[in-house]
Amino acid sequence: MRQDFGRVAVLMGGTSGEREVSLNSGKGVLDALKSQGVDAHAFDPACESLDALKAFQRAFIALHGGYGENGAIQGVLEIMGIPYTGPGVMASAIGMDKFRTKLIWQEVGLPVPEYAMLDDDSQFDAVEKRLGLPLFVKPAHEGSSIGVFMVTRPGELKSAYESARQYGDLVMAEKGVMGGEYTAGILGDEALPLVKIEPATAFYDYEAKYLRDDTRYICPADLPSAKAAEIQVGAKKAFNALGASGWGRVDFLMDDAGRHYFLEINTSPGMTTHSLVPMAARQAGLSFEALCMKILAGARCG
Description:
alpha+beta, Rossmann fold, 13 strands, 6-stranded antiparallel sheet
């Protein structure tokens, strides 16, 4: 199969706020593919013309956020006829929109945290009372917890909204579900072992995800087996409801009563030393190198 891949572009970097994380992901993937004999090369769309992609037979997308994860680069690759990893144009575009993702999940009967969309004319006090505290304010089109603010005291919602709005016009407030943060990796048609995340910070923010070494990860997650199986089925349903395929990650929360709520989807998950899908894959018996090879083998066009 290695000979079948041809010349492979590992897309990394880009122009989003997640550029540095993407460079780390891309380097890990590049090194792994090269170690398996793949003719892989780094490709940074921020520094190279997309026209140069015509020299490649396959693309491994290790871009995060922005044009790398919202369907734009997927569309370019489809026009060029280059098979690429991860979900397609539609699923990527919807997955980068937390609001519309929630609408679809609600329509198919999946549980999501209660939320409200915010704008300059919102009744912030009323939203606080309806959702309760703590709550989270986040831009709907960012990833990696960029621009996410936790509101813990009455009267703070408007200020948090104004801060989050610097990262995008579409902003939501979301009820705090504080019984635990978890994720479900998806690889092909399977949900990987669940991971529980225990940050040392107030919540799993950008610093806890990528910069700190005191975030604790438990895999497999400490959930009853029947509950874990139920969530894995739900995670695959959440993934498929957006038309996603290939690989990705579905994040979810637990409340104190043991109920789960699906939070968001990541259609180009991190592949760094702190990343969750490689962690779950190891628990399932897949090395990082084997994971990268399996993802690359699933590349498709359209």
